[in-house]
Design goal:
The chain is mainly beta. Helix content is 8%, strand content 32%.
Length: 123
Amino acid sequence: MVRRAGVVALVLASVVGVGATAQAETSKALSTCAIAFCLYTDDNWEGTEEEYMFEGYLCYTSASYMNNKASSMRNISGARVQFYDSANCSGAYGYAASPHSVDSDLTNNGFDNKTSSIKYVKV
């Protein structure tokens, strides 16, 4: 199941003594990604969000608005998620997100704007 950003609103309480910059950093860290795995069109978990709730160890093809546009990710699941540059998880995977990991910029591993499908893999 995939859910776009904006479906779930996250309300952040302001903290006394914390400046605007620190609050912006906190809001990035507390993304609306709450189920299992999220891709973002921009670095630092910004832009359009595509959220996945995995139902078994299957291949998930990105929605057209996200295809070849993912630039950051959050994996809050307990499994590895493999990224493929082709639909239907075909060919070899190009990047794997470890369980309970984040990556604010997929450029650092050569997979920025390349993801077409992902696969949830039991570790």
